[in-house]
## 1
Amino acid sequence: MPSPSTAFASDNAAPAHPKALEAIAAANSGTLLSYGSDPITQRAADRIKAMFDSPDAEVLFAFTGTGANIIALASAVRPWHEILCTDIAHSLLDEAGGPVLVSGASLAPLPSDDGILDPAQLDRRITRRGDVHHSQPRIVTITQSTENGRVWRPDAIAEFVDRAHELDLLVHVDGSRVANAIAALGSTPAEAIGDADIVTVGGTKNGMLFGDAILVRRPEHFRGIDFVQKQIGHLASKHRYVSAQFDAMLADGTWLTTAAHANAMAARLSAGLTGLGLTLASATDANEVFVELDAPTLSAVREHFVVHVPDPHQPAARFVCSWATTDDDVDTVLAVLRRTGSDRPHR
Ligand SMILES: Cc1ncc(COP(=O)(O)O)c(C=O)c1O
């Protein structure tokens, strides 16, 4: 039996997009200043600022999304602060406590609807301002698109960020999949992040070899961010090879077309699954599909595909589409499920 396909394991399982590799090869000429003081990095930073309509922002680059999130969050807080997040936040569940380790601040999860937070949750949480016995909420981090594949609508994110600001909270957007959100919304990039103060702008999950950017829209609240970046080992000496990928993929719109393709594949899969009578565990807004599979069906699928079950107590299996997912990949997984369904006596 061939080993199971990794086509839906993660968008990190996809190869790097040729555009990213070509950009790295094109950057590989002559000597340039290191640590980001090179013209390619400057150009990439300018493109990111222009894309998000943030002329006064600063831009940094990190090797990973985890690194970018930690740099953004840790530079906002002191050890007595609290970082608010959702109950499914990557920074809470999947960064091995990195934001807490580096910042000394605590992470406080708030109940969410698949990663979408009601602004009222902030009001409920902020009750002990100035009380020396309690950690002080300083920043809230939300994810666009969310860990459960949902997309914040522009009006919802605008309202949320505005309420956070009224409550004197900074806002971080973990945008490791923000390109998927922008493509799904058809909005401007700025609308997809509201008035957030700092944003992780994903590259790796969207076709880059490695690299996520940090868009610091209100640098006055993130003083020392470059020291955090250096301390945790994300200030690449040969910076141009990270930034060249953003430069090239933003220049001609590839960064959005790859995301739109991944979303389209997820929509095709999602429609196929519901057509088979299966139940989605959350709406498919972007490039991730969550579907309820009983244990025998999951085992049958796993003979053919590597699929992740994010919460072992929930029956939801996750299928992630990427720039490299094909119609054929989608149709193959649907065929497996169709076969499994017809084999099963009660269906
Ligand atoms: C929502 C979200 N944020 C951040 C990350 C971190 O990215 P990396 O694996 O590059 O550290 C991931 C990766 O899965 C993610 O899903």
Note: The longest strand covers residues 136-143.
## 2
Amino acid sequence: MRLLLLFLFISCAYGLQLKADRKAHWQTGNPNHGPFYGQPEQVHLSYGGDPSRVIVTWLTFDDTLSTTVEYGESDNLDLSANGNCSLFVDGGQRQTKRYIHRVMLENIKAGVKYYYHVGSEFGWSSIFTFVGLQPRPEGGYRFAVYGDMGNINARSLGKIQKLSQKRDFDMVLHVGDFAYDMYEKEGRFGDEFMRQIEPIAAYIPYMTVVGNHEEAYNFSHYINRFYMPDSDHSLFYSFDIGPVHVVGFSSEFYFYTKYGWDQIGNQWNWLLKDLQKAEKNRKNVPWIVTMAHKPMYCSDFYADDCKLYESIIRTGLPMTHAYGLENLFYKYGVDLELWAHEHSYERMFPVFNRTVYNGTKEPYVDPPAPVHVVTGSAGCQEQVVPFVKYPPPWSAFRSSLYGFSRMQVFNATHLYFEQVSASGDELIDFFWIVKNRHGRPNQKDKLKLAKYGTQIPMNYCHHESHDCSNSL
Ligand SMILES: [Fe+2]
């Protein structure tokens, strides 16, 4: 299995993969020529799909001919690993070239602190550290979760940087929309964003999904700059960590069909296979958490697809309802669905097919349907958004304050989730999901949902754009 994964890693095709025996453009015969800019920058880690594997990615603005991480359990850095390099040409007028370097570190020991730097003979980064992933003493792993963080007005950035370096989190899940936008100014916005997250991502894995702000040039800035495990595009992928199976996918395929329709079906088929596989492994990895950018449910004033009765993400393509995701995720008993895009925080009651499980005192104890959370208030220049006046039945808690979420999956039964302020110590919201059983909803779940659920009629309006009043 390991050999297979390694092969997949080496043979994948991000940008133009450069051959190991290539000649750089500056190798002209003139002994005084060298790379124009070989200094590594924008160093970031991602999870290699197993706690023993860490992927290190960085960028140079010129070809350095080699791609190396020197690392070890002290700053002697007595180990080294080589990787590959690909050329990413920006779609802007200047066609700026960026050389993206990727190295897979293997046999990383749980709980051991590693020191590392990256580069080549033409320049090395500063020394960073990471700790091999291992469950926390109280159980499981802790994640920072947020979307919609830009270069400008990145309100949560400082706090997340500080907490990451203190290892308050084990991993970041960034649920789409970066930089606003990465392609701007010939990609310099993307460079600046990757520099600003380096104090986070050089220390803990930074896991991502794509948002609408990454759309330019067919999402190529996202695809080239991030590297997610077991995927050659980072657009849809999954991994297990402790008791949770995390599935990342693109909501944007449904909206940017100018890049092709096949991507919707390809991804949907992949999701189906992935959930089938995860179902077989549910005894070992009981929780399934999905993440994608544009939500199915929301109630903020400027809401997009999620303000519609028939959100495309929820119910699929118009008329045919092909590739809808709500039925699929319900069928396979997805526990929690993480979203962003709306610049707010909103926790939903368990909900399926417009039936909201809000009629009990403990809606998150053995919920008979998936729980949704929108967490898109990390901070960007587009500011946070207000909510519609009357919360619709699916909305359990709403906040328009800047902030981000933290999640800890303690064990097979308990998942903790909270929303904290962008700075300071304010706890905005928290809740536990307690599950004594994971898997497909059974007859008992269906009866519970019917008995305690609120059925939302098709003519129910919660958004002023529908030109109707709240009458439920
Ligand atoms: Fe967005």
Note: The two ends are 54 Å apart (CA to CA).
